[in-house]
Design goal:
71% helix, 0% strand, mainly alpha
């Protein structure tokens, strides 16, 4: 069981704003490149939409992580839940973007990347701590 009254339960790793900021900037750069050359990339409309959403999610997670580190006494459980959802959806969005970007250049590479992503998700969910929402 996890003690949810402990603020460290909701606190992020100090490197999280740096990582999410980097991933947000990376996806924003990919968005600009996709918009510059839409005719050369298959699924460009879908890719632009997903990339813009993922960039937004990572930037929101970065801001949330920065606020958490500076004003931890102002943070509510709902706020940290929203920041966590932004981060997780951003990661899953990156898993969607990468194969779509690679598909225009190499179908075999896309298949290999999807297999690597599936293996990564299996290991992540197998070794992640089990937290029940009903624990009190």
């Amino acid at each position: 069981m996890v003690d949810k009254s402990d603020k460290s339960y909701w606190s992020f790793n100090p490197q999280l704003p740096t990582v999410t900021g980097f991933l947000g900037a990376l996806t924003f750069t990919a968005l600009i490149l996709i918009m510059q050359f839409p005719s050369e990339i298959q699924f460009s409309e879908i890719l632009i939409s997903i990339t813009a959403t993922v960039s937004f999610l990572f930037i929101m997670a970065t801001l949330g992580g920065a606020i958490d580190q500076r004003n931890s006494h102002l943070i509510t459980d709902q706020f940290m839940g929203v920041v966590s959802v932004c981060y997780v959806l951003g990661i899953f969005g990156m898993f969607a973007i990468l194969p779509l970007l690679l598909f225009s250049f190499s179908v075999i590479g896309t298949i290999v990347l999807i297999i690597i992503e599936i293996i990564t998700l299996i290991f992540y969910f197998r070794h992640s701590p089990k937290v029940s929402l009903n624990d009190s």
